[in-house]
Amino acid sequence: MSRQVASRTVRVDLEQRAYDVIVGHEIRAEIGPRIREIVGPDRRILLVIDDALPNSISEPALDSLARAGFHVTTARAKADEEHKSLEQTGNLLIAAANARLGRDDLVVALGGGVVGDVAGFVAATYRRGIGVIQCPTTLLSMVDASVGGKTGVNLTLEDGSTLKNAVGAFHQPRLVLADTQTLSTLSERNLRCGLAECIKHTLLCADEGLLERTEDNIDGLLSLEPEITVDLVARNVAVKARVVAADEREHDPTGGRALLNLGHTFAHAIETLPHLSPDAHRENAPLRHGEAVALGVLAACRCALELGTCSQDLVDRVTRMVSRAGLPVQIAGMPGDDALIDRMQHDKKTLGGKLRIVVPETGSRCRLMTNPDPKVLQIAWASIRA
Ligand SMILES: NC(=O)c1ccc[n+]([C@@H]2O[C@H](COP(=O)([O-])OP(=O)(O)OC[C@H]3O[C@@H](n4cnc5c(N)ncnc54)[C@H](O)[C@@H]3O)[C@@H](O)[C@H]2O)c1
Fold first, then answer.
1. Which one is catalytic: 28, 83, 150, 235?
2. Where are the beta strands (DSSP E) in 102-246?
3. Helix, strand or coil, per DSSP, at residue 111
4. Mutational test site, ligand 1, from 56, 118, 140, max ligand atoms within 8 Å of CB
5. Count helices and strands in the chain by DSSP H and E runs
6. How many Cα atoms within 13 Å fall on the side-chain side of residue 371?
7. pLDDT tens across 338-382, in order?
8. Considering 30, 225, 248, 250, which one is annotated as catalytic?
9. Which end of the chain has a smaller Cβ tally under 10 Å, C or N?
10. Mean pLDDT by 10 residues, the chain (386 residues)
11. 118 lines ligand 1 (CB under 6 A)
């Protein structure tokens, strides 16, 4: 028998573009009535379903939409970085046109971050923008990708190289519905990767006790204990929602939305290196994004320790959380410091040739630093080198 767990609602406060994020356990069958409350009946919907999802996840959502009176067309989408492409976007745009979606109709994305980003971009561009509903099914997409309105795809250049998220649009969803029960079919490695973003969030709101709560409940989250999972997902969504509401388009020069990149400048320097493995097994290479972020957050903490903005105690606590989450705390096989710092300089978040990193501050949030001393960066890289 399924357990009753109270759902939680987090508001993303963006004035006329404000929306709710509903987090609950086994709530996917509520999707039809929830959308109906927002847009009324008789709309057409293109339901974009992550190819990897079992029918036990997609069918209740589809039935719920149909029973609520929507005219639903389904499209399956492949969820990997290779298919986060203009080609898949084009196919879905054609599917939307074939389904005769009009300006008042909707795209509903059911899947992880890849499907959410592609389907969101389809909604942002079809007929110059129609509504999108995000129904995330990975931990990462629940706590991060589905909230905040960034949509987009990768761009493959003539020489075969890929620019990640190079084409996209800001397009806030009308509603986000996160059913944590869908996480039960997610691979353990993907679940752990989502936890890396949760650990990052604990440092963006140390003032709210999320750090302590995450420390206490990591095991419950990894075993998908329903109440703990709903609670932690909702609290993480609240962190992202607050940051996005304060700086929707990442314009705040003092930090704002850019603080969400904590650990990412380090992570981007290592996640595209094909030979790096999170453990001793070569077949697990390359690193997944979450694994690189976990290492990046630790490197950023080490920088902060060096700069005196955070304590050894905070570094130790974050290291213990990363380790308990089953994510790497050190890694073998990285290039030398100079090569890594050079890769950081070429990160797309670099502004006007200046390297920017986010560093934690004890008892507060995080701070943006421009052009940190290379010696500090070397110490940080050394701290995660096995
Ligand atoms: N828009 C944003 O603000 C934002 C933020 C962070 C990340 N992202 C993007 O999100 C993407 C990563 O998202 P992700 O970590 O969710 O990975 P993903 O979408 O690649 O999904 C990971 C794998 O899990 C499968 N899957 C999804 N849900 C499942 C389920 N419930 N059961 C079984 N399998 C399932 C997918 O098919 C895929 O194979 C990246 O492309 C990244 O750029 C976007």
1. 150
2. 106-111, 131-136, 150-156, 162-170, 175-179
3. strand
4. 140
5. 13, 11
6. 3
7. 999 999 988 766 667 789 999 998 766 899 999 999 999 999 999
8. 250
9. N
10. 85 97 97 96 96 97 97 97 97 98 98 98 98 98 98 94 93 98 98 98 84 96 98 97 95 91 95 93 95 98 95 95 98 96 80 86 82 95 97
11. no
Which of 273, 316, 311 shows the shortest CA–CA distance to 291? 273
Ligand 1 nearest-atom number relative to CA 78:
37
The residues, any chain, with a CB within 8 Å of residue 124's CB and separated by 6 or more, are 132, 151, 168, 169, 170, 171
What are the pLDDT digits (tens) for 156-172? 999 988 898 999 999 99
Tokens (6 digits) for 181: 């029960």
Closest CA to 228 of 2, 6, 10: 6
Q: Is residue 71 helix, strand or coil?
A: strand
Tens of pLDDT, residue by residue over 21-54, are 999 999 999 999 999 999 998 899 999 999 999 9
Active-site option among 264, 302, 356, 367: 264
In angstroms, the CA 38 to CA 52 distance is 29
3-state secondary structure of 48: strand
Residues 74 and 297: their CA atoms lie apart, in Å, by 39
The set of residues, in sequence order, having a beta carbon less than 8 Å from that of 184 and lying 6+ positions away, is 224
Alpha helices in 209-336 (DSSP H): 210-222, 226-246, 264-271, 289-307, 312-324
Question: Is the preceding peptide bond at 286 cis, omega within 30 degrees of 0?
Answer: yes
pTM over 0.90: yes
For the chain, what is the radius of gyration of the CA atoms? 20
* 8-state DSSP, 2: P
Per-residue pLDDT tens over the stretch 319-334: 999 999 999 999 999 9
The first and second tokens of residue 353, run together, are 């040739």
Cα separations (Å) of 311 from 145, 178, 190, 366? Answer: 30, 35, 30, 13
Contact present, 140 and 191 (Cβ < 8 Å): no
Pairwise CA distance, residues 38 & 14, whole Å: 16
Residue nearest to atom 18 of ligand 1 (CA): 112
